[in-house]
Structures are given as structure tokens and as C-alpha cells.
Write a structure and sequence with these properties.
78% helix; 0% strand
Length: 294
């Protein structure tokens, strides 16, 4: 197997692992755990694994002056992000959570225009418009236009889903503006424990059986740490643009597994909305590759 093919395989493996976040979270919910407890354990288990990883490779030192930024990064990009994502899974399903997470590139374009003075050209505006229309379609759920006529939108799930996309987008802004000199592994060493500590006061811990612990273990080991290793291995063999395209397989995995395990359905308009959101991501990837006009 050549290196390019291996790179695609690694990124596909990462996308598959990320796509399992929602399904395994739902499995934990079925065992009586709350969304915030699931978010806490995902951050805590991931934090332990990344700490061991950083100690082994010697990438754990940071400058004291950067610790407040690390604290804010962990609070927002782990605590709020992980919590809002799990709330979306709980209220709207794994499919909706995975799709709305992919509003992040649109948020990045908007925030970079506002705060980093990056251009917002016609292709980015097209991607933003596609994202907005896509979010509208996804928000209607499986009932489609009937939900619109009845005013039965799942607004809580939509709100938490957009919040997860927004806080995920902040990874880019924090990394570019403040933390670009650190590796992703070093960021996670501090961000995950800080995020777990931020979630801790809000968690109502429940007794857990073997199935619950197994689901939490998968979320920490596979969907957090394992996906990170696979994606980094892919990036060493592929251009970032190609890796970004392959990573859009994530919501496909989430929707497919959710359909098989729980018969989750998005409906025709929901699927169309999901396609528009993923299409908007691909437009943003094209801009980033330099093949399109910004």
C-alpha cells in the first residue's frame, strides 16, 4: 500500500471513529447517564490518555504566560463544546448532532472576517448561504414541512447543535491567533482536563454498569484519542485539503449507525439540508486549496 492510499485510510478511520461519538453517547444515555456526565467522562478519559502520550513524546511544556489562554480554550472548546454536542445527541439524535457540527467552517469564515480581517468573498458567502439553508432543513427533522406548519421545530436541539459548531470553530481561531506554536497533542493535554473540570460541577453522576463504562471507554479511547492519532497519521501522508474532504465521511457514519441501531431518520428535507451543509464544507475546502476565488 503506497503512502497516499495509507493516508486516505487513516483519515477515513478517523472520520469513522468521530462518527461513532453520537451512537455511543446514545448507548450511554440508554444506561441512565446524562449528557453532561458523558461529556465529562469523554474529556477526562481523553485527558489521561493525552497526558500519557505527551509524557512519552516530551510535548507537554507550555509557557506560563499562555496558561490563561489554555484555560479559556479548555473551558470553551472542550467544556462547552463537548457538553453542547452531547445535549444535541440527546435532544435531536446522533445524525443531527454530527451534521450541525459541520456548520463549523461557516462559523470560521464569519469569525475570521470579523476578528482576523480575512476576506469574505463570493464563494464564502455561497458556503454561508448553503449552511443556513441546510440548517433550516435539518432543524425540521423527520417530519419535514409538517413540523414547519405545526411549529414543532426542535429548537433546543438546533440551538445546542449550532453552539457545538460554533465552539468547534473556535479551535481554529485559538490555534491561529494564540496557540499556533504548540502541537495539537500539547493543546489537548491541558484543554481536556480543564474542560472536564469545567463540566464537573454540573454533572449528576449515576451508577454505571459494564455497558455504560464500555461506552464511556470507547468515547475517550476511540473517538477522542484514537481518532486524533489516526487523523494526524493521515495528515503526514496527505494534503490537509484532501484530508478535510475525506473527514466529511463522519456524519455519514453517524447517520448510518444511528439508523441501524435506533431507526433514526432525518426525512427528505433533513437529508437535503445535510447535503447542503456538507456541500458548504467542500466549498470552503476548495477555497482553502487555492483552487477557488475567496
Amino acid at each position: 500500500m503506497n503512502q497516499t492510499t495509507l493516508g486516505y485510510a487513516y483519515v477515513l478511520a478517523a472520520a469513522t471513529q468521530w462518527g461513532m461519538i453520537g451512537p455511543f453517547a446514545r448507548l450511554a444515555f440508554d444506561q441512565g447517564l446524562t449528557p453532561l456526565e458523558v461529556a465529562f467522562w469523554r474529556a477526562a478519559v481523553g485527558g489521561v490518555l493525552f497526558s500519557l502520550h505527551a509524557l512519552v513524546i516530551g510535548q507537554y511544556r507550555v509557557q506560563c504566560r499562555d496558561m490563561p489562554i489554555f484555560a479559556l480554550f479548555g473551558l470553551v472548546c472542550v467544556g462547552v463544546f463537548y457538553g453542547s454536542y452531547q445535549k444535541t445527541v440527546d435532544l435531536g439524535g446522533a445524525s443531527m448532532a454530527a451534521v450541525l457540527l459541520y456548520t463549523a467552517p461557516a462559523w470560521v469564515a464569519l469569525l475570521a472576517w470579523l476578528f482576523l480581517k480575512e476576506q469574505l468573498g463570493w464563494m464564502k458567502l455561497l458556503a454561508l448561504a448553503m449552511t443556513l439553508v441546510g440548517v433550516f432543513g435539518v432543524s425540521l427533522g423527520p417530519d419535514g414541512l409538517a413540523a414547519l406548519r405545526q411549529g414543532a421545530w426542535n429548537l433546543k436541539a438546533l440551538g445546542f447543535g449550532l453552539l457545538s459548531g460554533f465552539t468547534y470553530a473556535l479551535y481554529y481561531l485559538f490555534g491561529k491567533k494564540f496557540l499556533g506554536r504548540y502541537t495539537a497533542a500539547t493543546l489537548m493535554v491541558y484543554a481536556l482536563p480543564i474542560g472536564a473540570l469545567a463540566l464537573f460541577p454540573w454533572v449528576d453522576f449515576q451508577p454505571k454498569g459494564l455497558t455504560a463504562w464500555a461506552a464511556l471507554g470507547v468515547l475517550g479511547l476511540v473517538t477522542t484519542y484514537g481518532a486524533f492519532l489516526a487523523y494526524c497519521a493521515g495528515l503526514r501522508r496527505l494534503e490537509a485539503t484532501r484530508a478535510s474532504v475525506v473527514a466529511t465521511f463522519e456524519p455519514v457514519v453517524a447517520a448510518s449507525v444511528a439508523f441501524v441501531w435506533w431507526d433514526e431518520r432525518m426525512g427528505a428535507l433533513g437529508l437535503l439540508g445535510a447535503a447542503l451543509i456538507i456541500g458548504a464544507v467542500l466549498v470552503m475546502v476548495r477555497i482553502g486549496s487555492g483552487n477557488g476565488q475567496p
